[in-house]
Amino acid sequence: MTNDPWGQGDSGVRFDWGPIGAQRVSSPGSALVIVDVLSFTTTVSVAVERGAAVIPAPWRDGRAEELADESGAHLAVGRSETTHESPWSLSPASLRSGQLPARLVLPSPNGSAIAAASTGVVIAACLRNARAVGAWLASWSHGTGMPVSVVAAGERWPDGSLRPALEDLLGAGAVIDALAANASVRLSSEAAAARTTYAATASVAEAIRGCASARELLDQGFGVDVEIALEVDATDVVPLLTNGAFGRA
Residue 123 half-sphere exposure, CB side, CA atoms within 13 Å? Predict the structure, then answer.
């Protein structure tokens, strides 16, 4: 709605945070780009690149197992819960090698939860595919003829409230920067600020390696997941949510 200041409706490219932000900046006909660098959308990019379909589900929701059964999919487990029988998790490294199921339910409290609650054109973006996502959106006139809502998923504090996360701000800025290659694209103030932050960061890799989310993964022994997330523009795969699952656009 153009009269809703929180919706940024007078701009072709919008930016906001988390599930509520996704609801406020989305509108009929717009594309929703979800950015969850550590690690949902990075993991989706790896899985889809390898030919798997990824079904989003809210984190620790009891319906995730039921969803896997209904859709003939395997259910990913927590990073520290993998076994020989269930080796797939939110860790992108867990999906990079070995056999992948054709369909995988991948729960997470942030990016996956947003995707599961969204309809229309929904894309999973990260640093690995930011340029490809921008080019694909531009090819369908998103950002000019039709709006794009870029949403940084963020993380969660222990009380469940949203924690804005640097890695998602930079990932969203990378997508917005790619969209802004078209001079006719009109960015909201929020989107312009995210782009400026990305462009002004001397080393995105070093900034993310030093951020709280990455340090947490390093402390848990998942440093390789951080390095996979930092493979900037390593793939041209654009994961598009179709019939409840992310696959190649």
Answer: 26
Residue 105's beta-bridge partner residues?
A: 55, 75
| The residue count for the chain | 249
The H helix count followed by the E strand count for the chain is 11, 11
Q: Sheet containing 74-75: which strands, arranged edge to edge?
A: 13-17, 148-152, 31-35, 121-125, 239-242, 245-248, 53-58, 103-108, 74-75
pTM for this prediction: 0.96
Q: What angle do CA 136, 139, 25 make, to 5 degrees?
A: 70
| CATH number of the domain to which 223 belongs | 3.90.1560.10
pLDDT tens digits, 93-140: 999 988 999 999 999 999 999 999 999 999 999 999 999 999 999 999
> Is position 50 within any domain?
yes
pLDDT in tens, 184-240: 899 999 999 999 999 999 999 999 999 999 999 999 999 999 999 999 999 999 999
Q: Structurally, how many domains does the chain consist of?
A: 1
Contact 30, 165 (CB under 8 A): no
Distance set, CA 53 to CA 47, 74, 243 (Å): 7, 11, 11
